């Protein structure tokens, strides 16, 4: 989870490969109306997000039931979004917040091509981000390292939460 440009897709896909789990790109579950709004630089509202979260959560549950787990990417900026997803999944769920400075995020967003989310929406995403509280199943990982180091940290942290050695 995290704002646009934090590396969710890259890290999520790499983590899923390492874990031998299915990977779901949360952006693929947005209805066309959401993609259209974002591509025009219009931030999504909560009402835009609820159907998207329900669809993604259902797909996560179906994949987890079939494969024994799933890795999915989703901004999950607000606590209510994380709760909605976890409820839709109905299984133990841990979120990994990929966190970084505004400068790093803006540079990444500005450098990528072919993505509908313009850098002009970064500040609205940062404003919407509700930092996870201690009672939430969220671990925070810095995006300032390379992808392999981020995935290594995610694996180690998630393994420790599961009680694995």
CATH class: Alpha Beta
Extended strand count: 4
CATH topology: Rossmann fold
Low-confidence stretches: none
CATH superfamily placement: P-loop containing nucleotide triphosphate hydrolases
Q: Strand fraction band?
A: 5-15%
Question: What's the overall average pLDDT, rounded?
Answer: 89
H-E string? HEHHEHEHHEH
Q: How much helical structure, as a percent, in the residues? A: 40-55%
Query: Biggest sheet, in brief?
Result: 2 strands, parallel
Characterize the quaternary organization of these chains. Answer: single chain
Strand order of the largest sheet: 1-2
Radius of gyration: 15 Å
Give me the number of helical elements. Answer: 7
The assigned structural class equals: mainly alpha
Describe this structure in words.
It contains 7 helices and 4 strands. The protein has 165 residues and is mainly alpha-helical. The protein has one domain: 3-Layer(aba) Sandwich (Rossmann fold), CATH 3.40.50.300. α1 (8-19) packs across α7 (147-162) and α3 (46-67) packs parallel to α4. The longest helix is centred in the middle third of the chain and has 22 residues, at 46-67. 30% of the residues are buried. The model has no long low-confidence stretch (mean pLDDT 89).
């Amino acid at each position: 989870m995290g704002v646009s440009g934090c590396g969710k897709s890259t890290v999520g896909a790499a983590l899923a490969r390492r874990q031998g789990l299915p990977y779901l790109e949360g952006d693929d579950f947005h209805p066309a109306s959401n993609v259209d709004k974002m591509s025009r630089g219009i931030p999504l509202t909560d009402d835009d997000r609820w159907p998207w979260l329900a669809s993604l959560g259902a797909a996560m549950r179906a994949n987890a039931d079939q494969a024994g787990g799933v890795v999915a990417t989703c901004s999950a900026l607000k606590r209510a979004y994380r709760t909605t997803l976890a409820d839709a999944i109905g299984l133990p769920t841990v979120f990994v917040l990929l966190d970084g400075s505004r400068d790093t995020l803006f540079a990444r967003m500005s450098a990528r091509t072919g993505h509908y989310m313009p850098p002009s929406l970064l500040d609205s995403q940062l404003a919407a981000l509700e930092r996870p509280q201690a009672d939430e199943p969220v671990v925070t990982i810095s995006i300032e390292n390379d992808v392999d180091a981020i995935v290594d940290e995610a694996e180690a942290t998630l393994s420790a939460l599961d009680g694995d050695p």
